[in-house]
Task: structure prediction
Amino acid sequence: MDICERIENITKKIPDYTTLVAVSKTHSVETVKQAYNCGQKVFGENKVQELVSKYEQLPKDIQWHMIGHLQRNKVKYIAPFVSLIHSVDSFKLLREIEKQAKNNKRTISCLLQFHIANEETKFGFNIDEVCQMIESNEFKDLQNVNVTGVMGMASFTNDMEQVKEEFKTLKKYFDILKSRYFISKRDFKDISMGMTNDWEIALEEGSTMLRIGTSIFGARSCMIK
Ligand SMILES: *Cc1c(COP(=O)(O)O)cnc(C)c1O
Result:
């Protein structure tokens, strides 16, 4: 199967309101170009340097999503062009994105990343932190960031019941935030969840954005990352 067929196999199974983010990390510019040539326009990367380098070399109508942990001192490199940051995991980071977006006379769309996995290592907010942030005056003053939803990564496990519960939790957080704070904000609508091994479950649990790498581009070499 080539890349076009693999993309087609996924897109034919997902509803219109769901965005497929093709996760191209570690894969070459040529490989991304192949996917682009089959009509894929949304790509995700998890490292700033790689994101910037691919942005520079590839067509400018690609929408680049930052999906990996983002350090504040690197926001400035992606602020000129990034179309969505999935991985906002602190108020400090959101304020830095606001600042850099302003410098670039842009509004940057962001998702709030929640810690839903049963693992120490994954980044993300808990629901109380997010409520406190949203209720603060400082949050209300933000003008150049647009919070359009939530993101989460399930545990790395074969226990699909657990994964399902974690996705349910993320959906519940989305619903709480939507009904408490964003009921009339139409573009607060995204739930970014689901990767190669769990996207079908994520869809059932309400995902609107799938981040899929391996089943489109093949396995990533452990020699690269
Ligand atoms: C790598 C990555 C993905 C894609 O993972 P696959 O299992 O290859 O589909 C999704 N989300 C994030 C945050 C990632 O870093």
